[in-house]
Every structure is written in C-alpha cells, then in structure tokens.
C-alpha cells in the first residue's frame, strides 16, 4: 500500500458546497472544508473558535412561529462615546446605550407614540422591510405604508419620535413637497371658484361614446316617463362607460316645464336632478349620471320638439372612497388631508363626496404668475393676443382674469387686464384671448403677467407622499441631500431634497442647489427597495441594480443627474451592506449573495456572486450587518441570519483574493436581527427558552447567552435569562479573567443561583454562566494524485493526522478525544484544568472509506485554534 501526505495549509475559502466534491484540482478545494461551524476564518487562513454570545438585555418577547420578526436592531452612532442600539418592535421603539466598557444599558425608553400623540406605525409584519438613514442626532425611518418617521436624540438617554413634515412658506400657503401627475391622459380638474372653499371635479372629454342626441330624440311628448331609445339603451336604461352630464334641447319656450332625471352616479349611488326647460336653446344638467333610469317631464311640451342627449364631458374616478359615506362624505377617504395643485396652486382636500369630486380649500388663490417674461404677442391691427403658458390646460371659451400685464403692441394695460375669454387653443403651451382694443404693431411683451381662472385645466398634480399614493420605501443621505426612493404609486422614482435643507423638496427653477425629482424610466417598473450612499448613489430594486453617478469635483444637480441601469438581478428585503470596497446584497430569490462593485476596466458596476462556492449556506437571509475588525480579527466580517435561524459569516480580502464562508449556530436557539457598531456585532437571539435576547459576540468565552457574575459564598447568581431548573455551563475565573476553568453543567436553584460548593479556590472569584456550543470542522474528502492519476472514489484510509494547534485546551478528532495535557484540580477529582497547547500534535486513526475525511470538534467551552493539518493518506 502506498502512503502520501496531503497538506491542508489554509482554510481561506471557508466552508464550501458539496457540489465542489470533484474539483480536487482547484486551489479552492485544497484550502476549504465541507463544514466549518462556529469557527472564524482568520486573515492568515487559520480557524479560530468564534466569540461567545454575551447576554445584555431580555426584550420581554416570547417566540412566535407566526411572527418571528419582533425586533429590528438599528445602530445609532452619535459620536464615539455615545452609541446606541435602536430596537424597532411592534408598535414601539426601545433604545439601549452601548458603552465603551463593553456594557449595554437599557435606557428604559419604550416609545409608543410620537410627540404629536399619534401611535408609532411600526408593525412586526414589516420589520424586515424598514430602511433607515442617520445624520447627527436624527434617524430617518421609511416604509411605503407610513409617512417617514424621525427618531431624534434629545439627550444622553432621551429620544423622541416625530412624523416627517415638509417645509412650508411663511404664510403656510405652500408646502415644499414632491408632486406628481396620477390622472389619466386628458383628465381635467374643475374647481368651482378661485379662492376659499371649492368643489373640485375630475372630468375629461370623450367624443367616442355618444353625441348630444345619443339617448333619445323626440318631437313632442306629454307627462310621464319618456321612452329611452338609442345605442346606449339596454332594457330601458341608459348606461355609460363613465358618468356623463345630460343635455335638454328645445325648439320653443319650455321655461315653465321641469324635467327630472333619475339614475346613479359614478359610484353607483342613486341621484336625481330637476332642470327647468330652455327657451329654444340647450341647457345642461349639473350632475353626472353613470346610468339613467327615467327622464320625466312634469308637464306636457305641447308642440315643442325636445331632444335629450349627453355631453362629451364625463367624470373620472379619481378620489379614494374608502369606508362608508357619512353626511354626504367618505370620512375614511385617504385623499382627505392631501393636496392637489391647480396650475401650481394648492387645494387642500377636506372631504370626498364621490370618486369624481371632493371639497377642498384653496390655500391662496388660483392665480398663476407666468414663468415666461413678456408672454404676450400681438399682431398688427388685431385684438387677438397670443399667450405663451407651458401646459396651460385651457380649452376654448373658458374664462380667466389677467392682471399685472403691461402695454404691448399699442394695446394699453387697461385693455389687457381684467376678465377675458379664451378664444382659441393653438397648442398645449399657447392660447389666445381677445383684448379690449386692437394693436397697432406686432410685438412681444406684457411683462410679468398673472392669470386667475378656475376653468377646467389639464395642468394639475397631487402630492407624491400620502396614504393614497404611499410613502417612500427607501431613504439615504447623499451629498448633503436627503434622498427618498419608491412609493406604492411611483415605485421607481427618486426625490432629492435641496442641498442642506432636508425638508425642502421644491424643484423651483432647477438651480444647482434645488430639489430633484426623477424617475428611473427603463421600460419596466423596478420597485426601489434600498439606497446606498457609496462612491455613487447605488439603487437596489426588485428587478435590477442602478446608480446615480458622482462627478469628480462636482455635486449632483438637476441638470446633470443621470440614472444608469447596471445589472439585472434584483434585491430581496435584506439591507445591503458595505464591505471591502463593495456593497453586498441578497438576490431577490434569496439564494445568492452578490457584491456590487465598480470596475474601472469596464467603467460600470458588476454584481458577481460571492456565495456560489457556499450556496448551501444561503437560505433566504433576513438581516445582514458588517463588523469591521470583528471577532478580534483585522478583517471585516459580514454576518447574515437565515430563515432557519442559522447565521452565515462572510469575510473578504480582495487584495489577497481571499473570501470565505462559515456557519454560526446557537444550541437550541435561533438568530434573528443583527446590528454592528464598529467591531462590535450584536444579535437578537431566541434562546432555547424561547425568549428574545439582545446579545453580543464578545470575549474568548465558549458560551452563548452568558453572564459574567461574582462568586459569593460558593454560589454564582445567574438571574435573567435563566430560571430555576435550567441547566447551564459554568466557567470559573478570577477578576482579571487570566484563566478559564470549565466546571461542567449545573442546575439553577430556586434562588436563581448555581451552587459551586467544594469547587471554589480562593482565586476563583468570578464565573461565566451560559450554554456551551459545538465547534466543528469537517474537511473535504482527502484526495491525492498518484502515478496513475487521482484516487478519487477509491477505497482509502487515513493513517496519521498532524494538527497545528494554537492556544487549544480541548479537541476531538474523528470522534477520538485527544489528550492535550492536564492536571487534576486538588479540590475535586471530578474535573480537570487543561493547559492550553500551542504546537503540532499527532493523531493516529484507522479505517478505510471511499470518501475519507477528518472531523475536528470541540464540545467544551474552551479555546480552539486550528492553523492547518497534514493527513497521511493510505491508498
């Protein structure tokens, strides 16, 4: 039989998938393992046992299989001395202070309502989806279902919640918030006045459904129900695609006759309207009818011919009609309290009557100063004045009032200003009216003109953020602007505040420091989920990855902003994190982790998978955080919790081309939310007792949910989270922690103490009390190439194993306990104190297999570091 020595000098690629079992020819195979559990890959490629989990706070929350997500941890860093962990919970926010001495102090803050008295909107069902951004003493919290909230630090241990409110003009008649058009094309807003309280109607013209005589034409008729005829009639009832106004036309004098129309409105509510007959003309009913059941004249028309028809003006279902109607209004309408702008003038909706109409308060007046200087043009000898007004929205025949116009083309100001009528519409940016005098020259002028009108207009929009349209899904601070992204109604839109003015989103005249509103129009809608301020503003959506370029020595402005699509993978609801110059994100299917990084060679971003060699470790991750120089190592580590309660730990060093994954578990428990502050990594943990604990990876202690406590009268007090009857592990030490003696398992008594009588020496003054965890390494199949090729799949055995260990006190190799060297405790012969070993040791094994492996384990809560091993393979 032949013997060959197979070295495993490094574990720099961490745990890899068994799909690589045949890739014995690759460097990855030789520097990885099939299982690495509760071990951390060091910068040198060695493996060291992970830190224990120190218990800090019991959240007072019991595990629920229905709502596993019950606390979302958010770091809050005011300065290096004042750092906090924010726990967003169901209908509450709690704040804990993280001290430099390693303690976490409960500030006893349990915020359930904002300073306005409104309950906080946080819901455990959506905790994973919340996004945050912090600057100074302010943390912004966003989600599409509620207005952004602001958590403000007001003192060392004082915080408050408020609702994000946009800046307003000094007279409160203008709010500097984003607006957008949500109406269908050709839809008009029709207020009934230019100031004060006004009914606003949403309509549009449609000539395709019926002409003016589309219901019935009659020569004469007597009292009683008219028989309805025509293409729009079915079973005696007229039905329109949208509610229409009805017309009544006569060839004689019907001023003494009343005609009643009965039917339903746009929302199906029964309505009726009486109208006095016309005198050889046409009159129009004011109400809009979706259906007409009857048209009833109250008296005979005699020999006068009457025509009943519909107009081409129909209403549009626009306003929300949530809830039951009360006193003529929908009290639960999500449009109530929102703002609609008529040609830039704000109308605050106070009540919603129907889906097509509402009652609003005009905050100022429906007066618009035209943006163009000298917008009038005259033609020599004509009274017709051509007006340039971008997207004016007028139609012919509508009334308006002109003010502040100066003389132009020989027409005096007094003959321009005042009440006028739109005579014609040239295009969407130009219309005409007739002045009170003719011009004597063709000229441009008029100065700064103001126009007042409540005529139906196409030029209207609505606030972007509201209960009706949704709120931003993502928030970030980038180049001194507060950036929001993606609402329910505008999922691919971005809004940038003015520079240095985080509550002002007035786009103004598109000056460099003014606000920006832009849509990532790429042909398909991509719901924005996260914004990351890195070298550029990175945009992570449900379907693709984008970015807003940062220009060298130049800020982002309304005129240079670009949104560039890069990669097509999409992001799941896991907050992306920055590590080693890249941004890690979890692909939308929850099965891969990718790094989003700019490559100078391609002048673009790439999103290569970093989890492909350890794909089995990615199981629909929920939370992710990065501890820089974490676990006592110089590298940065990205930790992410999976849906099964395990944790995957990723480290990267691009310079040395090192990347690794390892698995972190907790005995009988589950990991939940994560947060990192510098090199400190915190985790919410459901322990085996189903209580949600705030813990921290810290200390060279092989225990989870552990406490450091004083030994008094041979007893160690444990308290929360352990109760009487719980079984715990105990490590005794001195006040300096200069040694660790593992004492074994103990049962907590009724006084919440562990009795150590007979085990305590004078120097053992303190104890660590918690639950041990298993550290485990299973190598890949030990393989080698012989003279006739690789021995993959052949029966082969392992004769000897040379392990290179450092500061190790206990180890088991292939189920065989390895003697490290020990001495009996003089006070008790039932346990031993193990001397740490730093050297190479030899372990002999027996047995043959087609897939021989080396399994290294440690069940005791003691130090362990494996630098590498050499395996003697027998073929």
Topology readout:
Blueprint: E1 3-8, H1 27-30, E2 33-37, E3 39-41, E4 47-49, E5 53-62, E6 71-77, E7 83-89, E8 92-98, E9 104-111, E10 131-135, E11 138-143, E12 146-155, E13 158-163, E14 179-180, E15 187-191, E16 196-205, E17 216-218, E18 233-234, E19 237-250, E20 258-264, E21 270-276, E22 282-297, E23 306-315, E24 325-326, E25 329-330, E26 339-342, E27 345-354, E28 357-362, E29 367-369, E30 376-378, E31 384-388, E32 399-403, H2 413-416, E33 418-427, E34 430-434, E35 443-445, E36 450-452, E37 460-463, E38 474-478, E39 481-485, E40 493-496, E41 516-519, E42 528-533, E43 537-541, E44 545-548, E45 564-567, E46 577-579, E47 582-586, E48 593-599, E49 604-609, E50 623-628, E51 636-641, E52 647-653, E53 658-664, E54 670-677, E55 680-686, E56 691-697, E57 703-712, E58 715-717, E59 727-733, E60 741-747, E61 753-755, E62 766-772, E63 775-779, E64 785-786, E65 789-790, E66 796-808, E67 812-813, E68 816-817, E69 822-825, E70 828-834, E71 837-844, E72 848-849, E73 855-858, E74 865-874
Antiparallel strand pairs: 1-74, 2-63, 3-4, 4-74, 5-56, 6-7, 7-8, 8-9, 10-11, 11-12, 12-13, 14-37, 15-16, 16-23, 16-28, 17-23, 18-19, 19-22, 19-23, 20-21, 20-22, 24-25, 26-27, 26-37, 27-28, 29-36, 30-31, 30-35, 31-34, 32-33, 32-36, 33-34, 38-39, 39-40, 40-41, 42-43, 43-44, 44-45, 46-47, 47-48, ...
């Amino acid at each position: 039989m032949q013997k060959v020595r197979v070295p495993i000098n490094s574990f720099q690629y961490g745990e890899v998938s068994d799909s690589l079992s045949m890739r014995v020819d690759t460097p990855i195979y030789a520097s990885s393992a099939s299982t690495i559990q509760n071990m951390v890959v060091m910068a040198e490629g060695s493996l060291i046992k992970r830190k224990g989990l120190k218990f800090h706070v019991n959240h007072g929350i019991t595990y629920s299989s229905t709502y596993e997500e019950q606390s979302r941890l958010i770091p809050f860093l005011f300065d290096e001395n004042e750092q906090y962990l924010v726990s967003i919970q169901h209908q509450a926010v709690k704040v804990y202070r993280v001290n430099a001495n390693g303690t976490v102090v409960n500030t006893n803050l349990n915020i359930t309502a904002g300073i306005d008295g409104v309950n906080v909107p946080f819901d455990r069902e959506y905790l994973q989806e919340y996004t945050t951004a912090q600057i100074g003493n302010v943390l912004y919290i966003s989600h599409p279902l509620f207005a952004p909230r602001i958590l403000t630090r007001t003192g060392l241990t004082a915080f408050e919640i408020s609702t994000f409110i946009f800046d307003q003009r000094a007279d409160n008649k203008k709010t500097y918030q984003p607006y957008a058009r949500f109406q269908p094309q050709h839809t008009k807003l029709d207020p009934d006045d230019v100031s004060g309280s006004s009914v606003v109607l949403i309509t549009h013209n449609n000539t395709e459904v019926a002409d003016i005589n589309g219901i019935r034409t009659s020569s004469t008729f007597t009292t009683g129900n008219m028989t309805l005829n025509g293409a729009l009639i079915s079973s005696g009832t007229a039905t329109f695609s949208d509610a229409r106004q009805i017309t009544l036309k006569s060839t004689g004098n019907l001023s003494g006759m009343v005609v009643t129309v009965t039917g339903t409105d746009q929302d199906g509510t029964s309505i009726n309207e009486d109208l006095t007959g016309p005198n050889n003309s046409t009159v129009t009913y004011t109400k809009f009818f979706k259906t007409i059941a009857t048209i009833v004249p109250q008296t005979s028309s005699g020999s006068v011919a009457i025509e009943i028809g519909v107009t081409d003006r129909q209403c549009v279902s626009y306003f929300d009609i949530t809830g039951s109607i009360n006193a003529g209004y929908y009290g639960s309408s999500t449009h109530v309290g929102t703002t609609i702008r008529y040609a830039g003038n704000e109308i605050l909706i106070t009540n919603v009557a129907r889906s097509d109409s509402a009652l609003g308060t005009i905050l100022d007046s429906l007066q618009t100063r035209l943006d163009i200087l000298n917008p009038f043009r005259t033609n020599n000898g004509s009274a017709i004045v051509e007006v340039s007004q971008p997207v004016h929205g007028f139609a012919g025949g509508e009334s308006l009032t002109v003010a502040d116009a100066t003389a132009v083309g020989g027409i005096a100001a007094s003959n321009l200003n005042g009440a006028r009528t739109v005579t014609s519409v040239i295009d969407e940016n130009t219309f005409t009216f007739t002045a009170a005098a003719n011009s004597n020259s063709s000229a441009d002028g008029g100065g700064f003109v103001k126009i007042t009108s409540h005529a139906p207009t196409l030029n209207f929009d609505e606030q972007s953020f509201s209960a009706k349209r949704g709120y931003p899904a993502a928030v970030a601070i980038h180049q001194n602007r507060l950036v929001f992204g993606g609402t329910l109604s505008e999922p691919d839109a971005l809004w940038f505040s003015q520079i240095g003015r985080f509550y002002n989103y007035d786009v103004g005249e598109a000056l460099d420091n003014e606000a920006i509103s832009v849509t990532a129009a790429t042909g398909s809608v991509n719901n924005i989920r996260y914004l990351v301020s890195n070298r550029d503003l990175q945009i992570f959506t449900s379907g693709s990855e984008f970015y807003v370029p940062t220009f060298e020595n130049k800020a982002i402005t309304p005129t240079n902003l670009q949104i560039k699509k890069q990669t097509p993978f999409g992001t799941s609801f896991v907050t992306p994190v920055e590590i080693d110059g890249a941004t890690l994100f979890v692909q939308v299917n929850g099965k891969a982790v990718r790094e989003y990084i700019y490559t100078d060679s391609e002048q673009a971003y790439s999103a290569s998978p970093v989890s492909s060699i350890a794909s089995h470790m990615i199981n629909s991750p929920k939370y992710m955080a990065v501890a820089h120089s974490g676990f006592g190592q110089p590298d940065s580590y990205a930790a992410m919790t999976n849906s099964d309660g395990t944790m995957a730990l990723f480290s990267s060093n691009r310079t040395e081309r090192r990347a690794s994954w390892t698995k972190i578990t907790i005995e009988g428990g589950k990991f939940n939310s994560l947060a990192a502050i510098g090199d400190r990594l915190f985790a919410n943990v459901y322990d085996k007792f189903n209580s949600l604990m705030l813990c921290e990876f810290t200390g060279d202690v092989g225990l989870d949910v552990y406490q450091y406590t004083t030994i008094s009268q041979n007893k160690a007090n444990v308290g929360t989270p352990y109760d009487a009857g719980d079984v715990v592990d105990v490590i005794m030490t001195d006040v300096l922690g200069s040694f660790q003696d593992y004492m074994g398992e103990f049962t907590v008594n009724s006084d919440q103490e562990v009795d150590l009588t007979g085990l305590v020496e004078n120097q053992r003054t303190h104890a660590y009390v918690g639950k041990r965890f298993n550290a485990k390494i299973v190598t890949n199949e030990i393989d080698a190439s012989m003279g006739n090729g690789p021995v993959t799949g052949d029966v082969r055995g392992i004769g000897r194993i040379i392990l290179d260990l450092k500061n190790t006190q206990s180890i088991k190799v292939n189920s065989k306990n390895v003697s490290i060297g020990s001495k009996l405790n003089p006070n008790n012969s039932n346990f031993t104190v193990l001397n740490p070993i730093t050297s190479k040791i030899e372990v002999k094994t027996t047995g043959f297999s087609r897939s021989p492996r080396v399994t290294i384990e440690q069940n005791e809560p003691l130090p362990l570091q494996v630098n590498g091993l050499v395996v003697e393979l027998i073929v």
